Amino acid sequence: MWVALLGPVIALLAHLTPRAISASLSAPGSLGPLAVSLEASGVALGVLVVAGTPLAYLLARERLPAPRLWEAGLLVSLLLPPLVIGLLLVFMVGPATPIGEALSKVHLSATNTFLALVIAEIYEAAPYYVLGAQAAFAAVDRRLE
What separation in angstroms does the CA of 80 have from each of 35, 75, 87, 97, 126? Predict the structure, then answer.
């Protein structure tokens, strides 16, 4: 498994010299995508902590109606291929949708923008965060609360 996960990185490093890597990283604007990715990840993490932690707690303590239905809703995004997820998100927040129209009224767009990146990251990461936090909350003895 380790070789399969690191194989693409090893293949990349085998084809590039340290000099070529250094030249690529020192070119003007080369670190811009990294900065955007880190910023979007930070925003997505903040949203997940604020919205996902209470949901995970409520699921762990079974304080929501039909908790298995909530869990199934979280797992749906894990079952879909990334291309399908992208298309479904466009169908949900694209400019011709009610959400997209509402966003355009406040001069925002969820298509090929920073907001779209954050939405996609939240959608992809939510099941991992919420289900992991749910397991952690469930492991805490209720008497300690």
Answer: 28, 9, 11, 21, 14
Alpha-carbon distances, residue 14 vs 8, 17, 21, 126 (angstroms): 10, 8, 11, 35
Query: Are 80 and 26 contained in the same domain?
Result: no
pLDDT computed for residue 105 by the predictor: 92
- For the chain, give the number of residues: 145
Task: Tell the burial category of 110 from Cβ atoms under 10 Å away from its Cβ (0-12, 13-18, 19+).
Answer: buried
Domain range for 121 is 32-144
Which tokens is 68 given? 């298995």
Q: Do residues 25 and 50 share a domain?
A: no
pLDDT at 126: 93
Low-confidence ranges of the chain (pLDDT < 70): none
Q: Is this structure's pTM higher than 0.90?
A: no
Which residue reads 């869990």 in tokens?
Answer: 71
- Three-class secondary structure of residue 63 per DSSP: coil
